[in-house]
Amino acid sequence: MAKINANYDKLSAGYLFPEIAKRTRKFQQLYPNVRVLRLGIGDTTEPLPPAVIDGLYEGVKKLANRESYTGYGDYEGNLELREALKAQYQAAGVDLDVSEIFVSDGAKPDSGNIQSVFATDNVIAIQDPAYPVYVDTNVIAGRTGLYNQETKQYDGIIYMPCTEENGFFSDVPGQKVDLIYLCSPNNPTGAVATKMQLKSFVEYARTHKSVIIFDAAYSDYIRDSEIPTSIFQVEGAKECAIEINSFSKSAGFTGVRLGWSVVPKSLAVLDAPAGKVNALWARRQCTFFNGASNVVQAGGLAVLSPLGRQECRKIIDYYMENAAIIRDGLLALGLTVYGGDNAPYIWLKTPGNISSWDFFDKLLREANVVGTPGSGFGPHGEGFFRLSAFGHRENVEMAVENIKQNLRL
Ligand code: MLT
What we know:
The protein has 409 residues and is α/β, with parallel strands linked by helices. The protein has helices at residues 16-30, 50-62, 79-91, 107-113, 132-140, 195-208, 248-251, 276-288, 294-303, 306-332, 356-367, 393-406; strands at residues 37-38, 101-104, 124-128, 147-148, 153-154, 158-161, 179-183, 211-215, 241-246, 259-262, 337-339, 345-349, 369-370, 372-373, 384-388.
């Protein structure tokens, strides 16, 4: 008789964003005439710019005749695209070989799948709060014990609390861990890690032969030139880090799907030669994945062209203006607000210390605005709430106005 993977039953709740969508739908059924404004999931809303649309068309046109038609491409991604990514890293002071870059259908699948090349008895450390994929995929893989209802933590995971006191970026773990997930600019807190902070993790990882899985999906939102956009800008990181990135937030590809991972050949792991993790990730990808869509990769190449970059930058600026509108509106109400200056997320402290989910209901009921409860990202997210800066300007302005006028504080 077939048996299920019982690790799924350890998951403490449904995936966060479908749960929010479900609650929002219920509210809309009760109040069909109310206009609900969504600042929940970090989903891009603005159309792709002309250079990128042209790139996608080029990709489609190539499929229309025999001479340029392509079927399966390289599993690791189109070489031209990987060369363009390599050049992008080079411009940021990071030297990579194209064989260290793997194109994929997004940062979410990569950040979920990367754990599969590591042993299940590795001890993992995760920022708390964090993007739920890191925890959930490790639970599913059997790398954790049960969920503890009291602490709201999984046994076996080392949680690195990100709090107001530490500026939402924790210190290195106090004990030895094997895999460390870091995200900067951070989803959900909007905090960014300084070079010194990343350096301390790189030193820790090199000392303990741990691997850092660095999620840089929001790196294009960094405004402060002192903040690293890649962990590889820290010396020694190529011996201890994997970096995951995406076209989703930087180029509006949330529905188009394109991302990449960098798995350096110099990555050091226990009892395996240099290049082993890179080879395993290549093996994993060509077994489970047939490469990103050729049309989409043509679009990605256009994103990385000088014109594409310029046009995408304008859209990022637009979202960052949204972030400023949200942040200023909330500050004017006297709320305690973080993030939003190097990231498209605003992280606010719930007023009156109410729970994150209670604030979700209150905000929806009183201001008709959907956000994301901080506790959905981990126990240290309790008492906080995330608002996303992705949205049409008029909706963002209306949401802020509704909050200012109707939220009872
Ligand atoms: C989020 O809202 O946290 C993210 O947009 C979800 C995602 O990127 O998968």
